[in-house]
Each structure stands twice: as C-alpha cells, then as structure tokens.
Design a protein that fits this description.
Order of helices and strands: EEHEEEHHEHHEHHEHEHHEHEH
Bound molecules: ligand C2E, magnesium ion
Number of strands: 11
Largest sheet: 8 strands, mixed, barrel
C-alpha cells in the first residue's frame, strides 16, 4: 500500500484520501517548490497623475512564472498560499525582488517614485512579523522605506481597526506609508477611517466599470472622492479602461488613475521603458 509521510510525521494512506485533499496537497507542494526555485516575480503598473499625465507611482503585482503553465495571477495562488501558511515566504520573495528592482532604477538615476506593494490580511494580522519582514527587505535591498506604500484592503483594516491603527503607526514611524485598496467593497467605519494613518484611498474597479452609464456608481465614486478630500487623502481610480472613464474621474477631481487605458501590469524591463518616457499624453 502506497503511503506518504508528511514532514510532521503523520502518515496518510492514499486510498483514504479524497482526491480534493490530494489536489490541495499537490498544489501546496508545488508552491513550496516554486518558492525554492524563485518563480515569483513582480509585474508593475503605473499610477498616472490625472492633471499632468506623469507617472506618479507604481504598483507591484505578483505573478507566478510557472515553467510549464506560464504566468499565473495572484487571484489563483494567493488564497492557496494563505491556506498553506506560505504567503509570508512568497511575499518576502516578491517584496525583495520588487525593492531590488526599484533600488536599481534609483541607482540608475530614475526619478524616485513611491512603490505600492499589496499585503495580505493574513500578514497584516501578524504585525510583528510584518515589521520584521519589512526591515529585513529594506536592509537586504537598500530601498528607502519612504518610497514604500503598503496596500491593504478595506476589510483587512476594518477587521480589527484599533490594532490596524497601531500597526500602521508603527510602520509610519519606520517611514513606510499605507493606502486602502478596493475601497467601497468592505464595511468602513467612518470614525475609524478618520483616525487611520493612511495617505490614499483606492476606489474599487467595481464602481469604475459602469461609471459612465450607471448613475448610482457615478454618485458613489463622486462621494468617495469628496470624502477622501475632506479627510486629506488622495484618491486613486482603479481599472480605468476608457477615455470616458478617465474624463469622468478627472472632472470629479480624482488625483490618480490606474488601468489598462494607460498600461497593463508589465514586466520590469517594460516598466523601465515607461519610466524613461515619464508619462502619457492626456486626452
Ligand atoms: P489589486 O491590488 O486591487 O490590484 C488590481 C488588479 O486589477 C490587478 O489584478 C490588476 O492587474 C488589475 N487591473 C489593473 N488595471 C485594470 C483594468 O484597467 N482593467 C481590469 N479588468 N483589471 C485591471 P491582479 O494583478 O490579478 O491582482 C489581483 C489582486 O491580487 C490584487 O488586487 C491584490 O489584492 C492581490 N495581489 C497582487 N499582488 C500581490 C502580492 O504581492 N501579495 C498579495 N498578498 N496580494 C497580491
Ligand atoms: Mg493593490
Ligand atoms: Mg485594488
Ligand atoms: Mg481590486
């Protein structure tokens, strides 16, 4: 009878295992292998200043370069990695190579631009580990903390807002900034929102999609921009795909735009070409 022995020493009999559990285990093992062979890389997407068209910052978005299957997006592997307790290691790898690349651009004389990095709620729930990881990566790469901006989803911050405020203050003391991702899809308490040490609200793509055709979406987007302004925060519109969407956001006073209309997330060498150009011409 075939059997497997896990690192913990437990014995599983293959016949007793259902295929789903086997699949999950195989995927987890594959993820471990991918970590060891450093198959996780960041892609980059520019955030464009709505008034000038200049690239104002960039976001690093994780990709798994699977040797056989090609590029795999975070929507697929992040949930499995979180379940398997591997998200920390993957994040370390992505954060390290993102910061190393951005530091290289700085050394080559490109204009210093903030770099946004996504942080999973699992990591945000372990603030000591997160701070340790941040300081390690900054040490390893020489990237200035002031240029790092962590993106946290609304739900991961509002889960335990008091602890989130403490963690964000600790990060800020360190020099690291934070912004709220996918804003509008979670449940924000406005009294906490006003106390959060953050610099940006990113309006979720769900509200941008139909913004030119759906009055309610348009009203929500406008309200978020005004709320952010009242709190002294900048706004970013995610998922700008058309000129009409861009023009609506500009008219309403949104600060930054991000989306396929300007550029898809691209590998580092293509991002560097965009940095050399510096920006986009606006309609
Ligand atoms: P997000 O941070 O909200 O990232 C925006 C997502 O929208 C990205 O998907 C991006 O490729 C996509 N996008 C950007 N512009 C457009 C557009 O104009 N149209 C459309 N249809 N999509 C657009 P992606 O790269 O698949 O990432 C999905 C999510 O995975 C991210 O959402 C983020 O929450 C998470 N993620 C990405 N990288 C990391 C990472 O390194 N660590 C962790 N923990 N999560 C990550
Ligand atoms: Mg993000
Ligand atoms: Mg987002
Ligand atoms: Mg999103």
């Amino acid at each position: 009878r075939a059997h497997l022995t896990s690192p913990g020493g437990y014995r599983f009999y293959v016949e007793e295992m259902n295929t789903r559990a086997l699949r999950v285990l195989a995927y987890e093992n594959r993820l471990r292998k991918a970590i060891n062979s450093e198959e996780f890389v960041p892609f980059f997407q520019p955030l464009v200043d709505v008034k000038t068209g200049q690239i104002a910052s960039m976001e690093a978005l994780a990709r798994w370069k699977h040797p056989r299957l090609g590029l795999i997006g975070p929507g697929e592997f992040v949930p499995v990695a979180e379940e398997a307790g591997l998200i920390g290691e993957i994040c370390h790898q992505i954060l390290h190579s993102t910061c190393a690349t951005a530091k290289k651009w700085l050394d080559e004389g490109h204009k210093p631009l903030p770099l946004a990095v996504n942080i999973s709620w699992r990591q945000f729930a372990q603030p000591e580990r997160l701070l340790l990881l941040m300081s390690r990566v900054l040490d390893e790469t020489g990237m200035p903390a002031e240029l790092i901006e962590l993106e946290l989803t609304e739900s991961s911050v509002m889960e335990e807002p008091d602890s989130a405020i403490r963690t964000l203050n600790d990060l800020r003391e360190f020099g690291v900034q934070a912004s709220i991702d996918d804003f509008g899809t979670g449940y924000s308490s406005l009294s906490y929102l006003k106390r959060l040490p953050i610099s940006k609200l990113k309006i979720d793509r769900a509200f941008i999609n139909e913004v030119n055709h759906n009055e309610r979406d348009a009203a929500i987007v406008e309200a978020i921009i005004q709320l952010a302004r009242a709190l002294g925060l900048k706004t970013v519109a995610e998922g700008i795909e058309t000129q009409e969407q861009f023009e609506f956001l500009r008219e309403k006073g949104c600060d930054l735009a991000q989306g396929f209309y300007f550029s898809k997330p691209v590998p580092a060498h293509e991002m560097e070409k965009m940095l050399i150009k510096g920006g986009f011409s606006l309609p």
